[in-house]
């Protein structure tokens, strides 16, 4: 008996149409997937970053204390050393600070803030840079000149100086009650403002090359809208260098947030990020309370190290000259 799926209307057999592979199957069969699993440092970095991220976002469930709840802090539990010390106490595995705040809990909560601010600032800078870079590279002319000259002005100033200026102006303009509430959005904006230029320059260079190719000229002849050409044809061909730049800049954004918080223009002490914890702990470093500054610093180094290792692997994996 013949399979009805193999019978056409005319009664003749036709071959089965092969099913289209799923996106997961394509990913597993891709060169990028093979490169990742054959790169031990990339696997280690991804596992480390995943562990830090999961523990940071599960902080309300796994941390022994809520460091943001000032009512839960007990001053008689302050300055307790780590658990392996003779004076250590349970459940303060990494000790406490001068206010009785559990260091491990503060690190988990602070890592979540640092990761969110770093990721959001990269997304904001990437969105602005992609849009302006596509416009500058595709249209050229006066639009290109205006966008690139603004970028040149931003690049001529130190990154940290621009961020400090933005946070200082925002803090001076906002009412006292809103400063702490809007501290995170202000930091995200301050880090993203000088960061979009790199993405815009990268996309502009790729867009200028792609805009002169035959398929773009053919799309223009059949009167395809410019925004469709930029999004559907030019942008996909610009994503390889952008992915590498965004990954590496994610680590820089986390470091920038930590630097601003360390300088006192970032997150407030009652909502500490890793930079705020390092700033607070640095005041007691020479008084014997070394754990207040050492453990947040180690956490910050692990996050940035894992992100940079992933970025280095991604840069090598997406480079056609190294295949």
Account of the 3D structure:
Helix 6 (141-155) packs antiparallel against helix 10 and helix 13 packs antiparallel against helix 15. The chain is mostly helical. Residues 4-9 have low confidence and may be disordered. 64% of the residues lie in helices and 0% in strands.
Q: What percent strand?
A: under 5%
Poorly predicted segments: 4-9
Terminal CA distance reads 50 Å
Structural Rg: 26 Å
Proportion in helices: 55-70%
Largest sheet features: none
Shape estimate: globular
Query: CATH architecture, please?
Result: Orthogonal Bundle
Total separate domains:
1
> What is the H-and-E element order?
HHHHHHHHHHHHHHH
The CATH class assignment is Mainly Alpha
Number of strands: 0
Category from helices, strands and their pairing? mainly alpha
Oligomer: single chain
CATH superfamily: MetI-like
Q: CATH topology, anyone?
A: MetI-like fold
Descriptive labels:
323 residues, mainly alpha, MetI-like fold, 15 helices, 0% strand, transport, cell membrane, MetI-like_sf
Helices and strands in order, then pairings?
Layout: H1 23-28, H2 31-37, H3 40-57, H4 59-62, H5 103-139, H6 141-155, H7 159-173, H8 176-179, H9 183-192, H10 196-210, H11 214-221, H12 226-234, H13 239-262, H14 274-282, H15 291-317
Helix pairs in contact: 3-5, 3-15, 5-6, 5-9, 5-10, 5-13, 5-14, 5-15, 6-10, 7-9, 9-13, 10-13, 11-12, 13-14, 13-15, 14-15
Question: How would you briefly describe this protein structure?
Answer:
The chain has 15 helices and no strands. It is mostly helical and 323 residues long.
